[in-house]
Amino acid sequence: MIRRRIFLLAAVGLVALVLLSTMPRAEAPVEDSRLSAENTQAPEPIEASETGDKVKAGCAITQTMMFSRCGHSVTRRIEAPSSVVGGDFETTQNYYDLWQIDSFSAAAIDMSREIDLFCPMHRVLGCNEAGEIVLSRNVYGDGMAIEQTYGGLSLEDFDEETQEALRLGLGFDTADDARAWLSAH
Ligand SMILES: [Zn+2]
Question: Which CATH number among 3.40.50.300, 3.30.450.20, 3.10.20.420, 3.20.20.100 corresponds to the domain 27-40+50-116?
Answer without folding.
Answer: 3.10.20.420
